[in-house]
Amino acid sequence: MKTEIPVHEALAIVRKHARPIAEKERVPLARALGRVLAEDLPALCDHPDLANTAVDGFAVRAEDTKEASREKPAVLRLVGESPAGRPFEGALGPGEAVAVYTGSPLPKGADAVVAVEETRREGDRVLVFRPASPKDIRPKGDDFKKGEVLLFRGDLLTPGRIGLAAAMGHAEVPVVRRPRVGILSTGDEVVAPGEPLPEGGVYDSNSYSVAALVAEAGGEPVILGRAKDDLSELKRQLAAAGALDLLLTSGGVSMGEYDLVRRLLEEEGEIYFWKILQRPGHPPIFGRYQDTLVLGLPGNPVSAMVVFFLYGRPMLFAMLGRTDPPYRRIRVRAEDFFKGAKGKVAFRRAALEYRPGAGFVAKSAGNQSSGAIRTMATGHALVAVPPDRNLNPGDEALAIPFDPEALGAPGLPEEF
């Protein structure tokens, strides 16, 4: 068993033991948001399937309008129209025009389009005031061609990718089965939200915050409730949980007599590591019980969330075979003092603000106690303070945003 290991080694170990899930299923596109593709996806058609028009106007022969101007417009005979979905059935002849609309199939015989604002219609005549352009035609297969692979195994299905899959002709997509993640709180003092809170009790925030983090990372959270400080009770609950890809426990991983998760893995399982050189979240334990990976999170609510974010999230990404990184690092400049830790990386909760010309600045989110969960709601990121040093105002550091997309585009003006 490894113990007191650095952050990068803990991360490497959890990735090593997180085996990709082989099972896949097909889901309708309407339910595919946030799922992960299990196979490469080829296009089932050309897009567009015919050459079409990029503007409202008239399809013409370029030769008929090459001398057109305001002073001497080309005069063409209107012979029909080509709305989207109802192509013009004939063929365009010399001196003729067909009314078209954005996305209309290009009529046979036409090789250029003139925008409606560069024309004037007079009955069945069209006056054209500038030469028509072939640039306003989208060629067949301009976006993609049948058989072209555009989405790949491991891609997260975002709204844009779902729209692309639909345009490619797919009504359903093959996705990786969601990892089934059990979440179990330990401790006699833990009480379910909504129940009367006894003296010395604490509401079970960990089950819900960690379940939300699991769902956000693409897993299927299974809240198993609370296990009392009794080893046999803990075993009974695990037996009743059914097949799991990962078990997350909160509490019971430290040095005390009632730290049962550690005892369970020591006596009947396998421990890959115990304790990481970081704060908060120094005492997590990672191992295997029977056929299930177990990540024992600390009991303090901030520690539990930070440890899952740093290690559980990459584990689920690896199980899903996701090709995007589980989190990103950005450079920030400290605006407040951030206290470090002796021999450990200190992850401090910070609120980030983007300032044009200066980049992101990091301000303390508030109370940095591992029990002060409010700062996980008001903060935007974890600022990494290297071992044996502090961050002073003006110092540069790396930060890991909880949600990089929520930060917006740096430097984007308020109005555009």
Give an overview of the whole structure:
Strand 9 and strand 10 form a beta hairpin. Helices cover 19% and strands 31% of the residues. It has 4 domains: 2-22 and 178-320, Molybdenum Cofactor Biosythetic Enzyme, Chain A, CATH 3.40.980.10; 34-47 and 149-176, no CATH class; 52-138, Molybdopterin biosynthesis moea protein, domain 3 (Molybdopterin biosynthesis moeA protein, domain 3), CATH 2.170.190.11; 330-407, MoeA, C-terminal, domain IV (Beta-clip). The protein has helices at 7-17, 62-65, 159-167, 206-216, 231-240, 260-268, 301-320, 374-378; strands spanning 2-5, 24-28, 41-42, 52-53, 57-60, 74-82, 96-100, 112-115, 119-122, 125-128, 137-138, 149-151, 172-176, 180-186, 190-191, 202-203, 220-227, 246-250, 269-276, 278-279, 285-289, 292-297, 330-334, 345-355, 359-364, 381-385, 396-401. Mean pLDDT is 91; it is low at 409-416. Helix 1 packs across helix 7. Strands 1-19-21-22-18-14-17 form a 7-stranded mixed beta sheet, sandwiched between helices. It is elongated. The protein contains 8 helices and 27 strands. By secondary structure, the chain is of the alpha/beta class. The longest helix has 20 residues, at 301-320.
